[in-house]
């Protein structure tokens, strides 16, 4: 349940150290392509895809909360064995394997539905539901053995300890106690153990009820799936899966443990009734119990208050230690750090990234604090990976650089707001603009000049190729007009014409658009009885213009029947052609 498992977790837990070593040993045998070094820590399976600086390490999904360290059975699950069969018939190890392979029905359904949704919305991520199951097992023991109703709502709150800086991270309240019931400090919430400040941007509505609730397993599983699919990671690639898991919790022991459960679930699982799943018992902070904390609602148990005997002096209340201010506490404001004008063409990437610097009141830089970038406004622009919110940690110079912005198809202005996570101070707004797709060059793609006889139709449709800076300009708006002359771009009232849906002559076509390859094929052109050379002018967004000459001339006499042709044949040809010409005039 931790975003980072490090020096800030509670100390003195011998079981934790032993579990970490066991996890590494088990992962060495179960994780694909994994190797271990002399320390028992898993070596990298490959170069990880990098996320924005510090994005995973300092703003994991769950803050510095502990997680369950129970290991999967060494024996693989045996789907053919009944999970209810007595242990004497299938052996103790196999019995535990079959029991652990059972995932509560509603929880299992939530994982599979999240996988299906991500397969459609982010097909390049290749999220397996078994990875969600592995994280759900480590974070909450599959929602405390499936302690949920049929709609996926937890029947009892699942809360991590108070993140008050006392052995854990210090994260002051960010949600007014809305999700965790704590208006002083944040706590990890729900089956996937999101802290409220992360849920604020990562939350999803997985069951379609219009609410994003971290206490609902459908919502939490879908949010976890999107969280793991950030930054364009492909989870079918081991290095990317490693990066995604470490972004949830930046601990090698956590990575090894999750991978162990992932491999275990891949070998076979089955559905069990809600409330009958196995419960974990060991946590990374050394505590035990099936809850996500020691209290009935999952919160940390507080010491019991005792009343002194009459003959005993009243003890003085214990002094509350004064915690040193954190880096976040020293931030007074954010400043723009040299970000240029943000402009991109629809469908393209912004060539500049937003940089923000955190400063104290005296103007000193503040390193290692979290800055949240939020896209605001009527836009479909996103950060890399398809998210509208990204959290980045300031570097040694106090600067946080937002992920690259990607423009959508909607044009116009929007804002990116930068704020400090866990503290209300003056932020920074960055204005950004998405312009329409454009072309700077148009070229005729036809190999023959467009010609036609009076009253006929042009044999070939006019086709042009649009490019922008040498590359094909797809989805660019264009207009085609039959103009009077090169100097008079007014619409001509004679000569070639297009037809509308009712067959009426029109000489201007708007709302045209090039295809993905930059090609634009115009509808068929027809000619009236006027002969001569006419001009078709095509223009696009971006200023590209092309003028095409259209020739309407009588048929070449050299193509007439030879004198040796019989008069009857000639008459027949003329008679048959005449109605056609009349019909198209």
Topology at a glance:
Blueprint lengths: L13 H17 L24 H4 L28 H4 L1 H9 L1 E3 H17 L7 H18 L49 H7 L14 H12 L9 H11 L3 H15 L3 E3 L60 E4 L5 E4 L9 E5 L10 E7 L5 E2 L5 E5 L5 E3 L3 E2 L5 E9 L7 E8 L5 E4 L6 E2 L10 E6 L2 E2 L4 E7 L14 E2 L5 E2 L1 E6 L5 E3 L10 E9 L4 E8 L14 H18 L1
Parallel strand pairs: 1-2, 4-12, 14-23
Antiparallel strand pairs: 3-5, 5-9, 6-8, 6-11, 7-10, 11-12, 13-15, 15-16, 15-21, 17-20, 17-22, 18-19, 22-23
Task: Report what the structure shows.
The protein is an alpha+beta fold. It folds into three domains: 14-45 and 60-272, no CATH class; 328-435, Immunoglobulin-like (Sandwich); 441-558, Sandwich (Immunoglobulin-like). Helices cover 23% and strands 18% of the residues. It has eleven helices and 23 strands. The protein has helices spanning 14-30, 55-58, 87-90, 92-100, 105-121, 129-146, 196-202, 217-228, 238-248, 252-266, 567-584; strands spanning 102-104, 270-272, 333-336, 342-345, 355-359, 370-376, 382-383, 389-393, 399-401, 405-406, 412-420, 428-435, 441-444, 451-452, 463-468, 471-472, 477-483, 498-499, 505-506, 508-513, 519-521, 532-540, 545-552. The strands form seven sheets. It has a five-stranded mixed beta sheet. Helix 1 (14-30) crosses helix 10 (252-266) and helix 6 (129-146) crosses helix 10 (252-266). The chain starts with 13 loop residues before the first helix and ends with a helix.
